[in-house]
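Example (one chain per record):
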Amino acid sequence: MVVLMCLTDLQPMPQRHSRIATLATALVLASTIGASTMGRAVAQALPAPPAPPANPHSEAKRILGKALFWDEQLSTDNTVACGTCHIPASGGSDPRIDIENRHPGLDGSLGTPDDRFASAGVRRADSQGHVQPSAFFNFARQVTGRRSPTNIGAAFFDELFWDGHATSTFFDPLTNAVVIPQGGALESQSLGPLLSSVEMADEGRTWADVTTKLGGARPLALATNLNPDLSAALAIDPTYPDLFEAAFGTAAITPVRIAFALATYQRTLHPDQTPWDRYITGTTSALTTQQRNGLNSFNSASLRCAQCHTPPLFSDGTYRNLGLRDIAEDNGRQAITGLFADRGRFKVPTLRNVGLRPRFFHSGAVEVPSLFNSVFFYNQGGGFFLENKDPLLNGVVMSPSTASDITAFLQFGLTDPRVAAETPPFDRPTLRSELGANATLGRMALPGSGGFIPRIQAAMPAVVGDTDFRVAVHGALGGALARVTTQYLAPGAPPLGGAPPGVISTSFSAPIVLAGTMPGEGYGTLQMPLPNVPALIGQRFRFNWVVFDPGARRGFAASQWAELTLR
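Predicted structure:
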């Protein structure tokens, strides 16, 4: 007999995990090995997630939610969408694992043991939209302290985020009235990043800022390769007010409606077509011999993997401390509950599509860089930090061969091919940020006092009609006057470095006073509206910063030129 799950090993679960407990107890526990299909009892596959009565499914809400989820204009600087950190082909997590997505941890230094592979968000900006240096990242993108958990399968949990701070009860953020008494964790989760000054927002961003921007934005103006459903919807309803009216009956854009649409879309991301799903419904050949061996080991009483990663969701929704990191770095669930017993505990994630994820655990686990390492990590009881470590890990012993078998099962047996290939319902447009640098830099810059060269920051995509386009500078002389030179280019003009430049017109901004006091410390931001003229879409323009600096050879320093294309 193949034991799929040992329910007698399960510890009692809190009431808040009742939905996941119901999934677990619905399983049939055994199947027969062999060529014969006679007597092959099967476990229950993953059912569709329920929608709360206050937010029933509709196709108009789904398509609005999909547009919002993949629109980088939902961030203040047009560089981060919800989907930026939740790419289906990466298992619903963040594929970016380069140095720009590494958090230095408490010591503030990269390359040390407390580093975390997490997710880059926005550059720090104050409530006026002026770029500011941040403590850890200076003028670079800020990076969150935890890896982005997968959003695929999130609809089954009563609490979301690694520490569970997005709860089942969803409140209207404007009135604090209860909108969904139970089952609204997705709605609760969806609004958090939009006001986070690390993930998607300026400091002090308000809901009025969000809704006003959406009201004037062209949906998915920065995205390319729109999916057929999005293209068809936008052909009928080309503005966000139109899309909100189609979904809700009126054009009003509110935080609750944004949350309802985002949650509705994410509830359709149902990853129930893995080889394991086919195997437990009767197709023995869906798993290879090695993967079946891995499944048997995964479900064994000695390794106890399924006790926390309970089928069919492959998570029981509890919070555990694996001894991976010092609690001083991140106390996890304790920060939400205030309970001493919750120190260092983090949510047990679903293992569906884990084989597509580039990093693992809440920290991105620099010390555990592969799925095999993540499995073998549990050999001899997990991590070295003993304080409040889960006793369930005691006595876990596995060989490298067993770990390889389990890895094969997780990597291939739990991967939904539609997720890996990004086919419906996991299809998506291409984000602007996936296409490389937003601006092309060219021409030699001129150094100023102390040899410091002003550094232009042209990370914000230029969208026709944007009322708050920004270009910033840092590394200049503090306290100096500076201005921006802007040139619009003729169609067909050569790129930066070419000649002749093909300039249609040149304009100069009013001077601004840079913050800072010393050479190399000056920084500032120019904000300007971009004309709401559709004919300008595709128009190229270039700009640079000129800093009036008495210590410069010519009396002024200059940044490189940056060239952008209006979207």
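Caption: The chain has three domains: 2-44+274-415, 59-271+427-433, 437-565.
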